[in-house]
Amino acid sequence: MTTRRNLLKGGAAASVIAAAPAFVRGQNLNSKLQLASIGSDGKGFSDIKAMSTHDKQKYVSFCDIDLNRTLNVKKLSPETPIYQDFREMFAEMGDDIDAVTVSTPDHMHAYCTISAMNMGKHVYCQKPLTHNVWESRQVVNKAKESGVVTRMGNQIHSHKFYRTAVQIIQSGRIGKVTQVHCWVPSTGHGKSGHISRPKGEDPVPDTINWESWIGVAPMRPYTAAYRCYHPWGWRDWQDFGGGSVGDFGCHILDPIYTALKITGHADDFFAEHSGMNDEVWPAQTTYKFTVPGTEYTAADRLTITWNDGGRQPSTKGSHLPAREALPRSGSLVIGEQGTLVIPHVAEPRLYFEGTGYSTDYEMADDRDHYHGWIDACLDGEQPSANFEYGGLLTETILLGNIAVRFPKEKLKWDAENMRITNIEEANKWLTRDYREGWELEKLLG
User: How far apart are CA 211 and CA 220, in angstroms?
Assistant: First the structure.
């Protein structure tokens, strides 16, 4: 019998690494998949609400480090117990939990997810899958080892607009793909790229478990500034988030990777930006990486370009009319016969030479990303956008953030050996130093 003390010693679930997947209840179609959340407001609450509309699920526990941010889940399910430390939740409720939704800041994704998989729990984790490349590899390996059902929270993967874009590209309407450009307008609150952390500290409210919020990251004082760390602003800080590409990369790049059936790792990365310090990410970034070609590309290698902070690609060389406006965010996919613009959550725009954009295509069906994961847990089948796929996307964007630290230098990536081969100093950014008591290595066995 695993005790609460054993579970908490050295990290959650450290003593139950070999636990079997929680399939038993799921295989009984008269029972419900019993869920727990880690992160229960903001994106966490939207995930919970979406899961809660499935008729074969039941949330049996909620967790959030901030009790003031549990008011919504209390209204949704007043009798469900609430925790501030997910390790305590696992220790006390572990036998009642089949699956877990992880909706925390990025730096805690891997620790929470691996803890859950160690206990044989299915996991739905928000994007990006992890905060660094080494974590991504460990999460993917642990998912394979544990046999649990996984899905990354890039929910637009299942939306009809992204699914339609995939259909168009794979149908051959625009021919073989020659160029891909992606962009988002966001800069976050660290707009100058040189914001420093606040001086001094504020008292930690009794409602907030600051120790658990910091988790694996280096400790820093709590600040009550609303848009600094918690609950908003954390994504801009290098210790906690991945900036704009960390926020949107697994969304915007998803239909590209899915449509082109990219399964190989990128092998070089190049970035330039508007300036940064050691605290926050740049305000504006351009990032290029090269992936192996596929049956849908014109060459055996394809370069994909990412822009953020208001930068947008030129439409020169595409099939768009002169001065045709691009959407605020999305992708420009240039083929030999036509060009597809994939706006971020809007109908695709199909262009051919000498014409305006066309919607002359069949719309794909809309699917529920959240329900699809629950169904997969009940059926014991892996869905699309599982951790193997999510890990590849995540690794790609995180390597981009390493390239950002070495502007205008091309980084060569040896994916098999997980090494940057031409700039030794860059390899230290593949992982991080884990704070005492939160060492991820102790969860890996």
Answer: 10
